[in-house]
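S2.1 Query sequence (Semaphorin 3D)
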Amino acid sequence: MRSFKVPHVCTALFLVMLFLPITGTSKQNIPRLKLSYKDLLLSNSCIPFLGSAEGLDFRTLLLDEERGRLLIGAKDHIFLLDLVDLNKNVKKIYWPAAKEKVEVCKLAGKDVQTECANFIRVLQPYNRTHVYVCGTGAFHPICGYIELGIHKEEIVFRLDTQNLESGRLKCPFDPQQPFASVMTDEYLYAGTASDFLGKDTALTRSLGPSHDHHYIRTDISEHYWLNGAKFIGTYPIPDTYNPDDDKIYFFFREISQDSSTSDKAILSRVGRICKNDMGGQRSLINKWTTFLKARLVCSIPGAEGADTHFDELQDIFLLSTRDERNPLVYGVFTTTSSVFKGSAVCVYSMADIRAVFNGPYAHKESVDHRWVQYEGRIPYPRPGTCPSKTYDPLIKSTRDFPDDVISFIKRHPVMYKSVYPKSGGPVFTRINVDYRLTQIVVDHVMAEDGQYDVLFLGTDVGTVLKVVSIAKEKWTMEEVVLEELQIFKQQLYIGSKDGLVQLSLHRCHTYGKACADCCLARDPYCAWDGNSCSRYAPTSKRRARRQDVKYGDPVTQCWDMEESITHETADEKVIFGIEFNSTFLECIPKSQQASIRWYIQRSGEEHREELKADERIIKTDYGLLIRSLQRKDAGAYYCKAEEHTFVHTVVKLNVNVIENGHMESTQKTEDEEGRTRDLLTESRLRYKDYIQLVSSPSFSLDEYCEQMWHREKRRQRNKGGAKWKHVQEMKKKRNRRHHESASGPHARPTST
Ligand SMILES: *[C@@H]1O[C@H](CO)[C@@H](O)[C@H](O)[C@H]1NC(C)=O
Ligand SMILES: *[C@@H]1O[C@H](CO)[C@@H](O)[C@H](O)[C@H]1NC(C)=O
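Output structure tokens follow.
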């Protein structure tokens, strides 16, 4: 038996539901729903991998969809989990770095815990029976094969320790370095640093079918090729129907080589090489001969060319479409500026990327010159095109390229034009918030009123934003610390420094039972089914489902609206306040984006009026604070939340004022004058208490009010005040009524 500690992830993870309304209100940047990790566990939509408790830096994930397994690369360990139940039949391989490598690593001044260990960074499916694995090996990268399969009904999960090989140029030395790799046709493509210091970076191809081990890389002596590149993603993408044209596209950021700017600006890039590149014959031997790169721009256009640039590529996600040659390219970028913190998501089309690679080359006369458009003669075949017998029987391989093609590509690997986002600018930005976006996963969802791309964005503070792009500037969101995200069968796998969790993409029931709540959420995964807010499937009976992702307007969608407005189905509470004392009327709407208005129907009056705040009556985010309660304050208080076009009463509070005179008559012994003075200071003190509460959200107002009530009760206990007994009885009755209404039917069925 294994005993599990409470996993660290419990405190490290945090999920928030964000929703941005159409107009630019101040509430725009606030998540509509904020779900803590505890909320997620309670709603059964989040399952932590309990082995995470050891804090092993879970950062490399490999899904084996066919066998329903998940492989996780962690510090000195590789885990094999069952997707049906992450915590059942867990298998693991312990693979630490060699002792002498750890010693050398320590002597080099590296950290024992966070650097001098074997951090698994490569997990790639090699063939039907084996997975290729590499680890940093305490700054001495090392690779090998894991056998994965079933033998006599037993799961085989074993590292072949007899056939380990060097991981140089396949895996980073430094566990913190960004790094990208992909395995295709048994070849491993990797973009990484090639040495201990991490200065020389390269894009390499290694391994391959056993008859054809052929190692190839970027040319280190050609400094226009890569300059301190940090690789973010590599993907095999076919370009045409001709397999000879198949390319590997890679995304990275690097230091700009434009001498016009003295500072070392960072630029984001897309690059590509041909799969069938074998290197040159006389020059560029075992180097790429088809290497090209172009700038990826993600900026908000400003007046007179004063654009806001997001230059540092952080993550890339390829959303596949029906055409495998044309996935949508989603990129997360951050600003390099030290002055302002911003992140943006930009989307690119492969057609635009290809157009730039088919466009003009950039030319640099010498190191001191700027990049200009190359105007000279372009050799044949056009540098960067893949060799193919179909096009030219004389050029069967890159070794057949004429010398002028080879020397051209050495000096002109950069395209002159840049790749701009599809919509001209970012599809989502976060500016001046105290976190940055670092990760992206996108899911394409069919909803009742259209198709939506839902973005899951990881941040550097350990939250995940769930965002849906609606028409142009309209968005819905959800905010969990992660290093890698993956989507598989409606689940999101989030690996982080502290652990791994499996998270469902939707939690429809958390929006509330009412049609309006479901509709306001604008979550394409959810629709109101006549009874509750539940998972929407395009194939299910259409007519009964209510959903409005585009506008989020419950008035047009929901039949229970009228009733909820006229009959005030809201919570109803009775509050007793003491004259001259402060009273707090709590009202917290479920949605953080709702704006609150208070209405009062004073005792004996027929009409409600909107309550106006003054120095005695203060509106706070948690409710209404009435200082020095007066008799005329008695009445019914309605707290109404307004969101989009939808207004509903969150709570109705019947405030009764216990007159001070009645209190005093039971306290004959007290000195009248001193008491009144105490009262005033007390109420002021209490106001201070309250302010403290608001700034420390761990203490709830409920608790506060409860405490105050008990204090009051204690004080009065020995005085035998008839009034108090009455109050307690009332309170009991009220509780009973509450239970009844809570268990009663809430939503009513509708028909169309
Ligand atoms: C897969 O690759 C491994 C390692 O090279 C080899 O031992 C094994 O036989 C291969 N399996 C198949 C099915 O080709
Ligand atoms: C107001 O509250 C304070 C603290 O509980 C209490 O001492 C005081 O008697 C209250 N005022 C009245 C009028 O009851």
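The chain has four domains: 58-177, 218-433, 506-562, 570-743. Residues 126-130, 145 surround 2-acetamido-2-deoxy-beta-D-glucopyranose (ligand 1) (CB under 6 Å).
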